[in-house]
Specification:
about 400 residues, alpha+beta, two-stranded parallel sheet, 23 helices
């Protein structure tokens, strides 16, 4: 871990913003997670700035400013093709909604601004013009100790913003840090504030946690502190051994969406879809998870034709993640047999002839019979993929159509 930050660690456009503030008699500090990541030797992405300039002053200093959150002291400055959030230093205030302060109180002291932030490892500020790091709450020490500790009084921090308890659990996984005991103890008493957080923000934190090397670290914290019970009671109530097996599967999976399905797998017949909808998972995400839960453990797969019919049920686009989850939960390994399907048709659209050809060759009109013929051809091809030629399918269709005409 690095022990200090240097101006060369900061992107040139960010330094230029701070220099503009300085030329106008104000100061600018780089704040937040980007400093934490630099000190950990990790690439930083979001570059946020704090300043003692008021929002209206910032607007006058830069040619392109978007008032994204000006009511809370934040504007977005467009510079060199990117947007940078610049927020005026703020002091303590009441948080009636458990998410944002009731009103903004501007201050001039960076340390007072840092005192309202969530964790010591995020309560850092660096002025690249003066080459000066502010660390009033020993965040560097906690980074070195790999410790997540709330700034000041933990219950007060968590009561201000309900999302912070979930962020603590997520950081335990993404940073692979431990929770300070006093910070962890403050989570349970402040869960009523957490329960007022929007479903969308909870979903985003879950997905971020699922991108960690070991997501299980976050979900263990969530379970033992009550966060999980407040979010998904049925999952929190699982038997300890079942829950731990699910977490092992989560850690072994590769993609976040497969990890989510692995976590929910023990509940696959108990209202998973309703929970996904309640927490605003996108329709595409819900479909992928539900397909994994439904098809991860198939039964009666014996022949190659069985594998093709199974693949047809699952859908070609979902096969890789469904078979991955199946292997992780102990189902019959099907990945190799599924890959052996190759480009064998799984839908009527993949047949070597289409409905227009059938109508032209057999004198058919659009209607149920056309669809039934195509389905029959697909069934034959699922048994014998070598039949999938224009001539072969046309001969089969003609024979079936003539047989139907005779029966009628």
């Amino acid at each position: 871990m690095c022990t200090r930050i240097r101006p060369e660690d900061i992107p040139t456009p960010v330094i230029e913003l701070c220099q503009t503030l300085a030329r106008n008699g104000q100061r600018g500090w780089v704040v937040g997670g980007c400093l934490r990541d630099i000190l950990r030797g990790q690439p930083a992405s979001d570059w946020d700035l704090a300043t003692d300039a008021r929002p209206e002053q910032v607007v006058k200093m830069f040619p392109r400013v978007i008032p994204t959150g000006i009511q809370h002291g934040t504007v977005t400055v467009r510079h060199r093709g990117n947007g940078y959030e610049v927020t005026t230093l703020r002091g303590e205030g009441a948080y009636s909604d458990g998410r944002r302060p009731d009103h903004v109180e501007y201050v001039s002291d960076i340390r007072e601004d840092l005192s309202r932030r969530d964790f010591t490892i995020n309560a850092l500020a660096y002025d690249p013009v003066a080459d000066q790091l502010e660390d009033p709450f020993a965040g560097l020490d906690d980074l070195s100790a790999k410790l997540i500790r709330a700034v000041g009084e933990p219950e007060r921090r968590f009561s201000e913003d309900g999302l912070r308890v979930l962020r603590a659990a997520r950081f335990a996984a993404t940073l692979e840090f431990e929770l300070d005991p006093a910070t962890e103890a403050a989570i349970a008493p402040t869960l009523p504030t957490f329960q007022r957080v929007s479903a969308e923000r909870v979903r985003e934190e879950w997905l971020k946690a699922l991108k960690a090397r070991q997501p299980s670290r976050a979900f263990r914290v969530m379970r033992r502190t009550g966060i999980l019970a407040a979010t998904y009671a049925e999952l929190a109530e699982l038997d300890e051994a079942v829950f731990e097996r699910a977490l092992d599967t989560v850690d072994a999976a590769r993609e976040p969406i497969v990890r989510l399905a692995a976590l929910l797998y023990p509940l696959r017949a108990r209202g998973v879809d309703a929970w996904l909808a309640r927490y605003r998972f996108a329709n595409a995400e819900r479909e992928r998870v539900l397909r994994m839960l439904r098809y991860a453990e198939p039964e009666g797969i014996v022949s190659a034709a069985d594998v093709r019919r199974y693949a047809r049920q699952v859908g070609r686009a979902f096969l890789d993640e469904v078979t991955e989850l199946g292997a992780l939960v102990g189902a019959e390994p099907l990945a190799e047999r599924v890959r052996a399907i190759g480009d064998a048709p799984l839908t009527t659209r993949e047949l070597a002839l289409d409905g227009r050809t059938l109508m032209s060759e057999l004198g058919l009109k659009p209607g149920p019979i056309l669809g039934q013929l195509l389905e029959l051809l697909l069934e034959r091809v699922l048994d014998r993929p070598e039949l999938n030629t224009r001539e072969g399918l046309l001969a089969l269709a003609r024979t079936e159509y003539e047989a139907r005409a005779e029966r009628e």
